[in-house]
Amino acid sequence: xxxxxxxxxxxINLSSLFAQLDVTSFNSDDLLDDLEEFMLSDVLGCxxxxxxxxxxxxxDAIGTFIYNPNNNIxxxxxxxxxxxxxxxxxxxxxxxxxxxxDDGEEWNIEYEDTFxxxxxxxxxxxxxxxxxxxxxxxxxxxxxSDSVSLDFEVIFGSEEYTEWMSPFYADAxxxxxxxxxxxxxxNFDLIPQNIMETGDVLNLPNNQFCDIENKPIxxxxxxxxxxxxxxxxxxxxxxxxxxxxxxxxxxxxxGYTIPMLFNLLLLPNANYHIQIVIVxxxxxxxxxxxxxxxxxxxxxxxxxxMFPTFEYNISVDTVFFNSMNVINPxxxxxxxxxxxxxxxxxxxxxxxxxxxxxxxxxxxxxxxxCTGEVELQTYDIFLNSFDIxxxxxxxxxxxxxxxxxxYEQINISLPGTNSESxxxxxxxxxxxxxxxHIRSNYFHVIDVSNILSGVxxxxxxTPSNDLGYIKKLIIL
Length: 476
Fold this sequence. Notes:
Layout: H1 5-12, E1 21-25, H2 31-44, E2 49-56, E3 62-67, E4 82-87, H3 114-122, E5 131-143, E6 148-158, E7 172-180, E8 193-194, E9 217-218, E10 239-241, E11 255-257, E12 260-266, E13 271-282, E14 291-297, H4 298-303, E15 310-315, E16 318-323, E17 331-336, E18 351-353, E19 358-368, E20 374-383, E21 400-402, E22 409-413, E23 421-427, E24 432-438, E25 443-447, E26 454-461, E27 468-475
Antiparallel strand pairs: 1-3, 2-5, 3-4, 4-14, 5-13, 6-11, 6-12, 6-14, 7-8, 7-9, 7-13, 10-11, 15-16, 16-18, 17-19, 19-20, 21-22, 22-25, 23-24, 23-26, 26-27
């Protein structure tokens, strides 16, 4: 399975000091397993269930990316920090410096998908004579037990900018969604629907000249002025010119889009089929220049990676912990209340009775089982102490208190007494929670079912103080 450590390795890789963008392909031997894990952890969310995952394309055409800002080589922010990278060539060509305007990898793999081809023709992305080559396609079935709203940000980059833009060999991208095995979601049916057309963008720039024409995403439908046909730009406010690395030399593509925000709402128990695809349009047998799609889920960044912090309330010797922000079902908790390295609780909001007053260090290790991220939090808890030196008694070994810890009652054996005794139970703050005066009684039973769980002190004395006893008592 894929290791989350590759993110850390990227950040410290000294061989890529220049680059802001680091990419890595999935292990070809475990591609489907690694891809499925990554789709759940970083693209969809672990609360969803995927099945029948298939991948079509070269192992070198798909992978993950991490982008780290570097103002020395970028005049503006790229906009995404990590996620999935799909290309119709090699993912390495997405990485700058951008010193070659025509990077491309020809896999010469024809992609026969009549529906997608006809869809692109109908949308005037390609001409009817254009064939589809060099696919990078992820397909799977998806179901959720709850209503889930997924927000995706997408950047489409291409080496077709700006001299090779045309409908004769346009690279194109789509995110198709259809509902299968039922009719629960009124927004989808058996016919695949591309939820990532330009008309679906939710974060259009605040630009009075931004006139969006609804089209599938491609280098022909989001473009500046066309040098090939002398046509004006189309959906140009979504485009960032990066020829010769002019905007960001960390990105290898000659042009790319702004981060475009899209939404997918999943209804409970509806069965969806997802097809995410990028292909190279070919006219005349020359599939060569690369395009790539950067995809990440902003919903996951807001929730899946969030670790809660805790507030706590102290009641004498008992501390109650409560999470301050949203509870993520993918998080597990390992509480160590006495800092001895042993797990004392795995509850989200635990309570703990401390036997020792003063300062106590509490550790909680939080693990996101979806992303693999781990966070250690430390809390210093101070408990006021009861000064038992005020109880100036000498110990009597003939006296016993049992059971200890106690649940509903305690038994006190007083074999050495032949006169009256005083029995008092104090909490750690020195408050009296029970007291009794007994006479000529060698055995005494105390009901503690109404006393709160905690640590207490039991003292036994005679009026003349010729008998004294003090014992720590734990009530569960």
